[in-house]
Design goal:
This protein has one domain (33-150). Mean pLDDT is 75; it is low at 21-33, 76-90 and 93-103. By secondary structure, the protein is mainly α. The chain has six helices and no strands. Helix content is 77%, strand content 0%. Helix 2 packs antiparallel against helix 5 (109-127) and helix 5 packs antiparallel against helix 6 (132-150). It is elongated. The longest helix has 25 residues, at 25-49.
C-alpha cells in the first residue's frame, strides 16, 4: 500500500513538472532559442579552429554567424553602421587567432575542410531553429562555407 502511494505521488510530480516546464510555450521558446544559440556558438568554434584562410570566406562565415547570434539576442544593428562592422570584423579576427594560439598554416587542408563541413552541418541544423534575419545570416554563412570549400 505504501509503495503504491509513492508511485502515485511520483507520477503526479512528473506530470506536474512536465506541465509547467516542457508544455509551457514560454519555456519551449527559451529552450529553442538556447538550442539555436548553442549550435551557432559551436559552428563559430569549428570555423575558428579551421587553419586555412579560404580567401576570406571562412572569416565571412564567422561574421555571418555572429550577426545571427546578435539577431537571436535581439541586438539588431543598422546595416550601414560601418563602426559596428569594423568591430565585428576585428572580433572575428581575434576569435580565429585566439582559437589557434596565433599560429596559422600548420594543419592539413583536409582537416580544415572537415571542420568547415562539420560547421556547415551544424548551421543546417540551426537553420531549422531560427527565422527572419537570423535565418538569412545563417544561410549566408552556409553559402560562404560552400564557397570556401570550392577553393583549392
Amino acid at each position: 500500500m505504501k509503495i503504491q502511494r509513492i508511485r502515485v505521488l511520483g507520477t503526479f510530480l512528473l506530470c506536474f513538472c512536465f506541465l509547467f516546464t516542457v508544455a509551457n510555450p514560454a519555456f519551449a521558446k527559451v529552450t529553442k532559442s538556447n538550442g539555436a544559440s548553442g549550435l551557432l556558438h559551436e559552428a563559430v568554434k569549428l570555423l575558428s579552429e579551421a587553419d586555412h584562410d579560404y580567401n576570406g570566406h571562412r572569416a565571412e562565415a564567422v561574421k555571418q554567424v555572429h550577426l545571427a547570434l546578435e539577431e537571436i539576442k535581439g541586438k539588431t544593428a543598422h546595416p550601414h553602421n560601418n563602426t559596428k562592422t569594423n568591430v565585428q570584423t576585428a572580433h572575428v579576427h581575434k576569435t580565429m587567432v585566439k582559437a589557434k594560439g596565433g599560429v596559422k598554416g600548420n594543419e592539413p587542408q583536409p582537416t580544415s575542410d572537415s571542420q568547415l563541413r562539420q560547421a556547415e552541418s551544424i548551421l543546417q541544423q540551426a537553420s531549422g531553429e531560427v527565422s527572419g534575419a537570423a535565418l538569412q545570416h545563417v544561410s549566408a554563412a552556409i553559402a560562404q562555407i560552400n564557397t570556401a570549400l570550392s577553393i583549392r
